[in-house]
Design brief:
Number of strands: 12
Order of helices and strands: HEEEEEHEEEEEEE
Strand order of the largest sheet: 8-7-2-1-11-12
Distance between the termini: 52 Å
Strand content: 35-45%
Helix content: 10-25%
Shape: globular
Structural class: mainly beta
Number of helices: 2
Radius of gyration: 16 Å
Largest sheet: 6 strands, mixed
């Protein structure tokens, strides 16, 4: 009977935890942040809360209107180490590299999705309206959405 309680209280909650979480949403970039092509683009930052690195090649990253499957062949760019963050540019310019998503974030709010290669939804997060040049971020890094999230400049 003790084994049953151990399973219910300890192992089942771990099964529902994704080691990838959204860490920051910047859906209305006026003239704040530049990508490597010196363009002001919306972005999404994710954090790896797990103990092992994850290569996101083959994962779908997007919203309810579109997105991209992260291409294979760029492990140095698409792998997120334990405790680290990775930035995705939502700029409708996937030809600019594996971290550029074929979608734009909606400043009125929407749902962000990350789906792994097996088709499991890893992230399904809805956010509300965003102000220009103000991001919505986890404080501290890795806080589960929406607890301990703040508007930041």
């Amino acid at each position: 009977m003790k084994l049953y309680y151990y399973f219910v209280l300890f192992l089942i909650p771990l099964c529902g935890f994704s080691q990838l979480q959204i860490n920051e949403i910047f859906a209305n970039n006026g003239d704040c942040c530049l990508d490597e092509f010196v363009e002001e683009e919306d972005f999404l930052e994710i954090v790896n809360l797990g103990l092992t690195p994850i290569n996101l090649a083959g994962y779908y990253v997007g919203d309810q209107d579109g997105g991209s499957i992260i291409p294979q062949g760029y492990p140095e760019t698409t792998t997120i180490s334990s405790g680290e963050v990775l930035l995705f540019w939502f700029d409708n310019d996937p030809e600019q590299g594996p971290l550029h998503i074929d979608a734009k974030l909606n400043s009125d709010g929407e749902t962000i999705l990350i789906i792994n290669e097996e088709g499991d939804t890893i992230v399904n997060t809805s956010y509300g309206p965003q102000e220009e040049d103000v991001s919505y971020a986890s404080m501290p890094d890795g806080s589960l959405y929406p607890n301990n999230w703040e508007l930041t400049l």
